[in-house]
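As a next step, we paired sequence with structure tokens, yielding the entry below.
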Amino acid sequence: MKTNLSKRVFTSIVLFSILLTCIFFHKYSWLLLVIVGSIIAFVEFNNLSNKIWKKNTFAKYIVRFSCLVYLLLFIYSSHNLYNEGIYATLFILFICIFSDIGGYVVGKIVGGKKLIKISPKKTISGSIGSLLFSLIPIFFYIMYNQNENLTLIKLILSALFISIVCQAGDLLISYFKRRANIKDTGSLLPGHGGILDRIDGLVFGLPIGFLLIQYF
């Protein structure tokens, strides 16, 4: 347990360092990171679909095509989110990251009733923890970015909605993993599993965050 936690923390620090480096270095380094992550995630999802659908069925190709289209939209929205500014990008990213941290930490410490059968490890307390932790980036965003159009209520509602979307994305990938009867989508990241295990919430949270910035 302690060994796995140590691996998880170390991997998280490395990933976070790479993420910040790519964001602050140049917009194309951020775009490259998103593209590489999406390609690996797509490969992992293909392997996942092979375990669910043993034969080449129509459903298998539809799901794969849908995954590919969505990842292309994810790349597009991530790139355009960066064009809105570094602070906006970091704000949406941190909401997704803190939502994930809140779910993991509170779920482990508090435990309690299970949230849904799709993912046995997900608890109601963890879901609430995700919502609460997703509000933390708001305080940093207000400190470093003064935008009169973004009221505190808007920021809170946006953070909570993005957290819910991130959790839904996590549950969706958990559903596919459960159908494939596997624990992780890969083994690339020690303590975490595959890339898709790590970015399942981000893949859904970033596009929604971009839409909220555009229209809300």
Q: What stands out?
A: The chain has eight helices and no strands. The chain has a mean pLDDT of 88.
